[in-house]
């Protein structure tokens, strides 16, 4: 069948094996030719080609809920469960995931394999910092466990390992206690990039922090943004204090004609959004679903970029070079009018020990671009700016980075490849992305 990532680029034809349990997965891997290649696939919410290969191993039916220890605040689940389904069970018990990406529709396995981050990286790190242990099936078909104390090398390379060490079948996570699912939000306005950085720094104690940036503003207003801060609200004895919510609002029924996405319409959207929200800035109370997952309210929003799909480009730069580097990126994008609806700026805290984790201390910027031939030379220019400022590009969003750029921004790639060879000596786990980046 035809499969793509969330960006709908590239498209390939693949066979999908959907094991019902870990035993059938073990049987499948041990009965196959030792050189046959495959890659895990969760919910297909990575944007590019990291979960694409001719043979896919889907975790769709590995979605069981295995254990919840309310005293220890831990949960153990199958890798195919979505973060939304974990919240559904945990929220009524006053428990919540420590780190949430911008959609609750990712699988637990996908969240671990990309070591995803949320709006609180500056305080709480990334998803795998809350992972206690992982069970995975290796290329040989053997089922093994790993944690910081057991098979530690396998743990450090499975967390953020993009499915290249084995198939995660279940994992145990630590949770946080909450008394309410409401979020106290404050929206602040920054009139340029320097002000955006200053506001984020001044509010470093805020638990959640994310800025929406007008990527097409130029000159004195380059990098103007709306900063959304958030804290968990206290319980208010409302019936709804610990209520799971999942809204599924409008759906985009078909791909938007690509010609509608041009410099004029993008500028109009960015200007109107900034003006509208600027006027309603200040404090408000939101439920967590609206605060963390606003995009989940629009089903199939990835069709808005047209039938050829789109690419998301996310990079991080260290604090000392981020202002200059991001100004250079934004200027290039604004000059060409190739901007996006969703340009997001966040602060990252310290990096962790996982060999291919994306976050490192500094700032991260995310931009969406319609897929078109003129985009690829632009992204190559942006890669160079990122490298010149000691930055790194996110694998979960990537569909086109070169091997040279990858190896320059992920200094632990060689150690990763050595550990992969130890656990997968025939190089059976490979995706389109890992082949392109020289990881398989
Ligand atoms: C709207 C939206 C918002 C997002 N916001 C954020 C964000 O704020 N922060 C962030 O970090 N990311 C974000 N992402 C990216 C997303 O969280 C990651 O790409 C995540 O990895 C997707 O998980 P998935 O289950 O869809 O995995 P897939 O896309 O199916 O796979 C992603 C990678 O995980 C591997 N994998 C999947 N399952 C397993 C398994 N069982 N065992 C081993 N490897 C496995 C795959 O091989 C592949 O390499 C966002 C994505 C979308 C669509």
Can you put this structure into words, describing what you see?
The protein has 440 residues and is an alpha+beta fold. It has a domain at 182-406: 2-Layer Sandwich (Alpha-Beta Plaits), CATH 3.30.70.2520. 28% of the residues lie in helices and 23% in strands. The chain is built from 13 helices and 19 strands. It has helices at residues 22-31, 83-90, 108-113, 121-124, 152-158, 193-202, 263-279, 288-292, 319-336, 375-388, 403-409, 413-423, 432-437, and strands spanning 2-3, 12-13, 15-17, 39-41, 55-58, 65-69, 74-78, 95-97, 131-137, 143-147, 167-177, 182-190, 208-213, 225-232, 282-287, 310-317, 344-348, 362-370, 392-393. It has an eight-stranded antiparallel beta sheet with strand order 15-12-14-13-17-18-16-19. Strand 9 and strand 10 form a beta hairpin. Helix 9 runs antiparallel to helix 10 (375-388). The relative contact order is 0.16. Bound molecules: flavin-adenine dinucleotide. Residues 6, 39-46, 50-51, 59, 79, 101-103, 106-107, 109-111, 113-114, 116-118, 162-163, 167-168, 295, 396, 431 line the site of flavin-adenine dinucleotide.
């Amino acid at each position: 069948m035809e499969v793509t990532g969330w960006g709908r680029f590239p498209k390939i034809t693949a066979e999908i094996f959907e094991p019902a349990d870990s035993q059938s997965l073990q049987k499948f891997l041990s009965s196959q030719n030792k050189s046959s290649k495959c890659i895990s696939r969760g919910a297909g919410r990575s944007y590019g080609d990291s979960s694409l290969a001719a043979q896919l191993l889907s975790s769709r039916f590995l979605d069981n809920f295995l254990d919840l220890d309310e005293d220890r605040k831990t949960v153990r689940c199958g890798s195919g469960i979505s973060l939304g389904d974990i919240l559904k069970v945990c929220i009524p018990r006053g428990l919540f995931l420590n780190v949430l990406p911008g959609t609750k529709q990712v699988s637990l396995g996908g969240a671990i394999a990309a070591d995803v981050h949320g709006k609180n990286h500056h305080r709480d790190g990334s998803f795998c910092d809350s992972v206690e242990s992982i069970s995975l099936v290796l290329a040989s078909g053997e089922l093994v466990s790993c944690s910081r104390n057991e098979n530690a090398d396998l743990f450090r390379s499975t967390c953020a390992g993009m499915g290249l060490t084995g198939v995660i079948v279940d994992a145990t996570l630590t949770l946080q206690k909450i008394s309410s699912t409401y979020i106290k939000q404050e929206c602040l306005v920054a009139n340029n990039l320097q002000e955006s950085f200053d506001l984020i720094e001044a509010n470093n104690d805020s638990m959640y922090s994310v800025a929406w940036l007008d990527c097409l503003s130029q000159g004195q207003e380059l990098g103007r943004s709306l900063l959304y801060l958030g804290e968990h609200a206290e319980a208010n004895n409302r019936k709804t204090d610990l209520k799971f919510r999942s809204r599924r609002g409008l759906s985009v029924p078909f791909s938007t004609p690509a010609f509608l996405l041009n410099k004029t319409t993008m500028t109009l959207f960015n200007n109107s959004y900034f003006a509208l929200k600027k006027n309603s800035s200040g404090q408000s109370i939101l439920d967590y679903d609206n605060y963390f997952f606003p995009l989940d309210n629009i089903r199939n929003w990835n069709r808005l970029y047209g039938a050829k799909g789109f690419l998301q480009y996310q990079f991080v730069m260290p604090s000392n070079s981020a202002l200059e580097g991001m100004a250079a990126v934004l200027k290039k994008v604004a000059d060409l009018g190739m901007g996006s609806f969703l340009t997001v700026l966040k602060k990252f805290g310290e990096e962790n020990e996982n060999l291919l984790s994306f976050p490192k201390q500094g700032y991260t910027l995310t931009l969406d671009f319609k897929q078109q031939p003129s985009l690829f030379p632009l992204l190559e220019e942006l890669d160079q700016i990122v490298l010149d400022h000691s930055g790194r590009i996110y694998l979960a969003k990537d569909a086109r980075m070169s091997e040279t750029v990858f190896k320059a921004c992920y200094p632990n790639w060689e150690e990763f490849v050595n550990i992969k060879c130890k656990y997968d000596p025939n190089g059976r786990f490979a995706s389109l992305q890992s082949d392109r980046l020289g990881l398989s």
